[in-house]
UniProtKB/TrEMBL annotation:
One of its GO terms (cellular component) is chloride channel complex. Its main location: membrane. GO terms for molecular function: voltage-gated chloride channel activity. This is Chloride channel protein. It is found in: Membrane. Keywords: CBS domain, Chloride, Chloride channel, Ion channel, Ion transport, Membrane, Repeat, Transmembrane, Transmembrane helix, Transport, Voltage-gated channel. The chain crosses the membrane at residues 74-96, 116-139, 233-256, 268-287, 320-341, 451-469.
Length: 798
């Protein structure tokens, strides 16, 4: 019987798969697409963003009125409010923990080194080691999906790829506490990227009502179970994460729009903007409460992270050349950083991490010890410099008191009025080091030798640290690297032009923007973020200039950091533009020569079980026959829906004949929400379902549960048009069929401009260019012939 289920056709997943450099079992064809034979690619599965308009969906929609539409919109805004509050509180908790760990650590070390530098070095290494060990242990033993920044995974999710485990409750907990350990332990990474992942997890968990595994769920929050609604919530969470990390609400909205989302609409823009605004309010209120000393070191720096509004007032035409040079350097160093992280990540995955979780913990601890030795030991090798003459109106003190954050750190200096410029940026938190590099009225605070030493060492540490088994963001390390060489260029500019109005901190700001642009390839969102975190609108044109230059230079060598990391992780992203080689190929050619596995309308339960066990396909065309005996494609049946039907058993029937949808079984059929798969989960497996011998002999009529209107393309359509259609609509399956024999009609723009029902019938009539078929065929109940399915083009996971 199973042999009758195979129809002539083709099926392939090559179109969606980008070139994966770590795949050893595949071969690249002339279009640069990977051809593989394995069906399970690192647990990656596509999401169902398409609305399945089956019988259950239409019945559910028919029961909903205008009041439900208003209620649904209000609930979405309420969820946006909850996402903003939750992400803001999570960011405040992470910041309070990190800054207090760092503050207590440096205060203790400065007190110890007054007596013994060796004892201070050992205590410093042990504290950092303990924090990093706790982070690595949490990640390896509790939440493996929380490693890294999480932005490539979230970008893949919003592109239509579901990676198991990335949005679970344990991932959220691992991300929060792992970030505290890794950032507080002084590693060359930041907490901004993990905060984006944290916001996405909070949004996803709120959308599904919490976590049922840990008994932290609420029924009244379980309002959004479809992948489309979850996608919108996760988008709000991503924007909230950036807004909380940088206290940049507008930058968070633009980051979600430019970097992570693949589908955008105006209604979503309003909710994302509202969520980011709520985050800004929550963070500002928390910082206002913390300014009285309730939160230790958190809140003392103000809402603007690196305020340089009192810096350089203006710039001259002569400065454009060194500023453009900063853009070129940023593009080169950013592209080099991306390439080095690819090599290190590939080596780490292929050799080091194959040895188990214990090796991952050892690696993180070894990098922690190395980072601590470098940050403590290198300033000891640098001679101290005398303090400059202080300006009577300046608030900058030289040297700073031990354990107090700021410029001019006295570290291993024999005299009181001396400071160690290398310790000012090395033996400090990254936020304070960036604040020192951005600072104005501190010309010649750092020597060129110290900046070059720090640049080489920190750049190397950032490359080695990125990819370890801890939560790791790359925003702040990128700002550190860029501001270092930017200030270095500023030193040469000040010495060359001999002008008093040139500030080295201005060039540090431009350097930070250039490196992020050269590495991450963001432009608009990054430009706004840099303006918001520095409170300096005067240099917006210069930031735009260096971003454009650095991105153009970096694009010559490789793709952005997140795109490269997504490819290494095996996440099949569909980029905004198809490859040029696709213009020369058709949909028929992309399908290959494989056969399509289709199902009859009424199928035996034993056959369904056999089909699901024998392959990993996630979509099956359903074939019926007309009264003349000709095959007819009536829709698409999803694997997950078949599993739900097998699990519930309420739609089993004894007869092999089709049943009518108006029968008595309508009331007990599963509703539309029961077909939804839990987020970031594999859902029901065929191995989890028990069926008796009597059950296997029964039948299922698939007509009420299939998607009766799947998207279809002709076999000779160019692959470029197929790609654009697939990506812009967020599809998972796309039928490839032969040319149709006739046209039922042509829909134009005017046919879609539906007037209000109260309008007269005369206004409803629009000039039609449609070619109508014979009406008497439909009136007599004749079946409309549809072309026989010739091929099925399946994206990512079949």
């Amino acid at each position: 019987m199973l042999s009758n289920l195979f129809e002539n056709g083709t099926e392939s997943a090559r179109v969606a798969w980008s070139r994966l450099p770590h795949s050893d079992g595949g071969e690249l064809d002339e279009a640069g697409l990977l051809s593989t034979t394995t069906s399970d690619r690192n647990g990656v599965e596509s999401l169902d963003y398409e609305v399945i308009e089956n019988y259950a969906y239409r019945e559910e929609q028919a029961q909903r009125g205008r009041l439900f539409v208003i209620y649904n919109a209000a609930v979405k805004w309420f969820f946006a409010l909850l996402i903003g509050i939750g992400t803001g509180l999570a960011a405040v908790f992470i910041n309070i923990s990190v800054e207090n760990f760092a503050g207590w650590k440096f205060a203790l070390i400065f007190n110890i080194i007054q007596k013994s530098y060796l004892a201070g070095c050992l205590i410093y290494i042990l504290i950092n080691l303990a924090l990093v060990f706790s982070s690595a242990y949490i990640i390896t033993q509790f939440a493996p999906a929380a490693a890294g920044s999480g932005i490539p995974e979230i970008k893949g999710y919003l592109n239509g790829v579901d990676i198991h485990g990335i949005l679970l409750f344990r991932t959220l907990i691992g991300k929060i506490f792992g970030s505290i350990g890794s950032v507080g332990g002084g590693l060359a990474l930041g907490k901004e990227g993990p905060l984006v992942h944290t916001g996405a997890c909070i949004a996803s968990l709120l959308g599904q009502g919490g976590s049922t595994k840990y008994h932290l769920s609420s029924r009244w929050l379980q309002g959004f179970k479809s992948d489309r609604d979850r996608r919108d919530l996760v988008t709000c969470g991503c924007a909230a994460g950036v807004a909380a990390a940088f206290r940049a609400p507008v930058g968070g909205v633009l980051f979600a729009l430019e970097e992570v989302t693949s589908w955008w609409r105006s209604q979503l823009m309003w909710r994302v903007f509202f969520t980011s605004a709520i985050v800004a309010v929550v963070v500002r209120v928390a910082m206002g409460w913390c300014k009285s000393g309730n939160c230790g070191h958190f809140g003392s720096g103000g809402f603007i992270i690196w305020d340089i509004s009192d810096g350089q007032e203006d710039y001259s035409f002569e400065e454009l050349l060194p500023m453009a040079l900063i853009g070129v350097i940023g593009g080169l160093l950013g592209a080099l950083f991306n390439q080095l992280t690819i090599y290190v990540t590939r080596w780490r995955r292929n050799y080091l991490h194959k040895k188990g979780n214990r090796v991952k913990i050892y690696e993180a601890c070894l990098i922690s010890v190395l980072t601590s030795i470098i940050s403590f030991g290198l300033p000891l090798l640098r001679n101290c410099s005398p303090c400059p003459d202080s300006d009577p109106g300046s608030e900058i003190e030289c040297p700073r008191a031990p354990g107090v954050d700021g410029n001019y750190v006295n570290f291993y200096c024999s005299k009181d009025k001396e400071y160690n410029d290398l310790a000012t940026i090395f033996f400090n938190t990254q936020d304070d080091a960036i604040r020192n590099l951005f600072s104005a009225k501190t010309i010649h605070e750092f020597s060129a030798r110290s900046l070059l030493t720090f640049l080489v060492m920190f750049y190397t540490l950032a490359v080695v640290t990125f990819g370890t088994a801890v939560p790791a963001g790359q925003f702040v390390p990128g700002i550190m690297i860029g501001s270092t060489y930017g200030r270095l260029v500023g030193i040469f500019t000040v010495n060359h032009y001999k002008k008093l109005n040139i500030e080295e901190g201005t060039y540090a700001l431009l350097g930070a923007a250039s490196f992020l642009g050269g590495s991450m390839r963001m432009t608009v969102s990054l430009c706004v973020i840099m303006v918001e975190i520095t409170n300096n609108l005067k240099f917006l044109p210069l930031i735009m200039l260096v971003l454009l230059i650095s991105k153009a230079v970096g694009d010559v060598f490789n793709e952005g950091l997140y795109e490269e990391q997504a490819r290494l992780k095996g996440i099949p992203l569909l980029e905004s533009r198809p490859k040029y080689e696709m213009r020369k190929r058709t949909a028929r050619e992309a399908c290959g020569n494989q056969k399509v596995l289709s199902l009859p309308r009424v199928i035996k339960v034993a056959d369904v079980v056999s089909i699901l066990r024998s392959n990993e396909h996630n979509g099956f065309p359903v074939i019926d026959h007309t009264r003349n005996g000709e095959p007819l494609v009536i829709g698409l049946m999803l694997r997950s829906h078949l599993l739900v039907l097998l699990h519930s058993k309420i739609d089993f029937q004894h007869s092999p004949l089709p049943c009518h949808s108006t029968g008595e079984s309508r009331a007990i059929r599963p509703n539309f929400s029961e077909f939804a798969k839990p987020v970031s989960s594999k859902g029901i497996s065929i191995d989890d379902i028990y069926l008796s011998s009597d059950d296997l002999e029964m039948y299922i009529d698939l007509a009420p549960f299939l998607n009766p209107s799947p998207y279809v393309v002709p076999e000779d359509m160019s692959l470029t048009k197929v790609y654009n259609l697939f990506r812009q609509l967020g599809l998972r399956h796309l039928f490839v069929v032969p040319r149709a024999s006739r046209v039922m009609g042509v829909i134009t723009r005017k046919d879609l401009l539906i007037e209000e029902e109260t309008e007269s019938s005369a206004t409803m009539e629009l000039q039609s260019t449609s070619v109508r078929g014979q009406r008497h065929e439909r009136e007599n109940g004749a079946d409309i012939e549809r072309p026989l399915l010739n091929g099925l083009l399946v994206q990512r996971q079949r």
